Amino acid sequence: MPLGPVRPSPLVEQAAQRLREQITGGHWPVGTRLPGETTLAKELGVGRSTLREALRALAGAGLVQPRHGSGVFVIATEPAEDWPARLRRAAVTDVYEVRLGVEVHAARLAAQRRTPEDVTALWAALDGRRAASDADDTAFVDADIALHAAVVAAARNPVLAALFAEFIPVLREALIDLLSLTGLRENHPGHGDETHTALVEAVTDGAPDLAASALRTDLEATLKLLRERS
């Protein structure tokens, strides 16, 4: 199927879209070398600089890869999905399993690296979680996540902090739904206070193993409930 010329503006976006359609439609299978710049630019009715920008956009989407001296090759027929989108599609139990690994390690590091300011923030977050026991499920979950975020922050690792931040939207929705469905807080409004207190105490005392154990106990209990509901 011929590419056909594009309309005047925006040229780069239109050129990239036309090329993307050829790739996702199977016209150029994985491993295929795209026609040369001169040919593609002529077929699309754009300049070579516009074509190069369009190809850069496709490379950024994970569809093509330029190879020096060889040309541009198709490496995938579907755009690479960004991490937040993948998390939104994932089963919450799968996300929680990864969360468990990330946070347990973060708790261990937090107990080793916490500063006096971190300790103050942790106890304030624990107080906030306790205060939220009188609030609705949404407020309680937000307070709970704030405490966990304080632990991750105390680990002093920006990559762990960034990973945890990506999990928050999925976790927040899942936890609010879980509390609503199970009624866990009906008899225990501050559900999990004991394990969260043990976590904060362990981080404060500089006890990595105890901090990791306390957090693992909390998260594994929640993961079990999520699996039962899935």
N-to-C order of helices and strands:
HHHEEHHHHHHH
| Rg (CA only) | 25 Å
Secondary-structure class: mainly alpha
Largest sheet properties: 2 strands, antiparallel
Distance between the termini: 46 Å
Amount of beta strand = under 5%
Identify the strand order in the major beta sheet: 1-2
Q: Residue share in helices?
A: 55-70%
Mean pLDDT: 89
Shape: elongated
How many beta-strand elements? 2
Low-pLDDT segments, ≥5 res: none
- The number of helical elements comes to 10
Describe, in plain words, how this protein is organized in 3D.
Helix content is 69%, strand content 3%. It has helices at residues 11-24, 37-44, 48-60, 83-89, 92-113, 116-131, 137-154, 158-182, 193-205, 208-229, and strands at residues 64-67, 71-74. The chain has 230 residues and is mainly alpha-helical. The model has no long low-confidence stretch (mean pLDDT 89). The protein has ten helices and two strands; from the N terminus they run αααββααααααα.
